[in-house]
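Why does this matter for the project? Reviewers at the last site visit asked to see concrete outputs rather than summary tables. In response, this paragraph embeds two records directly. Each consists of the residue sequence and, immediately after it, the corresponding structure tokens. Nothing has been edited or filtered.
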Amino acid sequence: MDKLSAMEVFVRVVESGSFVRAAERLGMSTTAVSRQLADLEAQLGARLLQRTTRRLHLTDAGRGYHARCAQILADVEEADASVRTDTLRPRGVLRLSAPVSFGLKHLTALLPAYLAAYPEVTLDVDMSDRQVDLVEEGFDVALRIAMRLPPTLVARRIAAIHVVPCASPAYLAREGEPARPEDLARHRCLVYTHAAEPGIWTFGDEARVSVDGPLKSNNGDLLRAAALAGEGIICEPSFLLGDDLAAGRLMPLLRGEPTPPLALYAVYPSRRHLSAKVRTFVDFLIGRIGDPPPWDAWMEMAEPRRSGPEGF
């Protein structure tokens, strides 16, 4: 059995939704298509498709295997194209997953420029704060903000992300400014519930502070709006707060107490060959965002303020 040919048969059957239409696309008989798929399932020792009189359904094993096969076939097609042409043009659908707040605040301005530079690429963007399964769900690339990433993923670092505790001038005038992390326990803190440990803010290597307050949410934009209204202290990523910090609408706190370092990464399934559309997209983001990124310009403008005897 030709394994690559059997993979193509499997992928075309899934795409077509029937053995007959797949056979027509491949220029094969329906019997030959059915035999190749049966041989592939026998070699794998797993059923890939459930067949009924009306429809075909992927099994759980079939869904993961289909995503892998589709990528392998795309890589083979791209490798062939690279031999036939001097330059490889990015083309096709690029499926992207990105965090909601980052996507709305920064990707909205960047994506039109990428499409203008690469008109043969179509973007399919899913904005969600959950961590998608790239292979299972068929994403080409995902943007993630993290300290570290699983070793199963290939990743490129795009830019630093700083988590900044801050509050509005009105709140600080009314409630005072914390001089050290443990002071946060007596303040009104606005809690992001989608964090790994909601209600725990970390400083340095060991300082872990339990915080609470009048508002909790899984959306950073909502918490930012509440902080701007003087409702309390937030501890959110700089990409969300940079403009407010630069304009003085929010004031950074505890400047001498570093929060854990994060970074924005582009991640994609581990494989030897990247498609041109993924490679150019990641290069584009790195070139346009830069490191340090524009959302951290406030860090050069703001001087640490002394609010306590130890100079915090």
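We now turn to the second protein, recorded in exactly the same manner.
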Amino acid sequence: MKQHPLVRYLYLFYAFVFLLQTINVFIDSETINYILGVLSIIMLIVSFPLASGLFKILGGTFLAIGGYLFFATGQSLHVIPSLLTSNLSLLTLLAMLPWMNSIVRSGRFDRNLNLLMKVNVSDLGKLYPRSSLTTHILAAFLNLSAATISHDVLKSTLSSFSKEIRNSFITTASLRGYSLALLWSPLEIMVAVSIFATGVDYVTLLPWLILMAVTAYLLDSIFGRIYYKKYKFEQSSLTKQSMIDKKGIGKKMMQFIIALVLFLTLVIMIGNLVDLSFILTVTILIFPFSFVWSLMMKRRRSFWIIGWNNWKEKTNMMQNFIVLFISLSLFSTSLGDTAFLEAIQKPLSYVSEYPIVILFLIQVIFVFLSMFGIHPIATVGILTGIITPLLDILNPVSIALVLITGSVATFTVGTYGLLVTLTAMGTGQSPYRITVQNIPFAIGMWVLGTLVAYFLL
């Protein structure tokens, strides 16, 4: 279907709405909030035809149910715009993420990490933990781009092995390393959504998230080391590895890690000192941090070129998330004004004595729905009615942890998810095969998340 030329400039409209939303966080004007609601309706109307089929179904379902619940409460129609702005802050954060991606690319950190992956490895068992860690570090800043970069490098590195071995290695090492980064990264939207849904501080969650990420990485690395050590590299490949400038790459990686630690520190410090929400702090900090970083590396020109084009492209393609988040706002707000929450509060009280069952089932729901193409953000929306009363029964930190671990597990086993689909396309294998191969890892994440969350009750 041919698109109208104006579609290429949607990023200007979206950017205006997101800027106005950020300004209004500080002004807190009801008038501007209402205007934002009207603009949200326009965004929804413009974005809906451009969204994918799955997100049209999800958005349409949330709108239909939310609309029904709204009219059931007997409220006036003029109230609707004010109900659609609750998730604009999440959309604003999504729009800013490409700038962080761009600084990593302009500084060529992705290339150096990939070179570091190959140094002094004689078999796939030694390469496995390094590949997983490399993808992990890249994903902390690059998100989905990290997976495609890792796939390309591993396909080249493992060209001497059979397709079956190569695909198995990529399916496990890259997908699991990628998902573990999303467990704690302040740039991961599911971390932001879980914090948004439970009201827990990021700094409270961070130590536990890092603990789970490190534990899962070590256990998975042991598996990879044992399982793949029988596959040896050819002598010619070892010769090429010895030619890599280890000192130069090590220095570059140290800069990268320092920048990552500094960004996390600033997010925590600014959020506490100025009393800003986690989502707003990350949103505001991304661009100035990236720009100053580019100046220090003397990469300002490449940062602007890569960043501007990357930002325009990504912002111009936000239709799926705009449809989902705005429709989810109507659903969530309307749900809160009905007696439905009280109806599910009662059955929950019967199982409140078995919180470990509740925590485990929340994670199972994430993975189960992901196998039918349901995005974890949509799953949070579906679980909204359950999550709210649970916050009065269980520790909100525990709820946030299982929401995050449950959503992260979906990235490795979501048959129709974007990451599994990209991996299937890149490796030429069935997405169902990828799902089956990573189910043990997903179950391990459920168990780990449930145990840590139960410990904190």
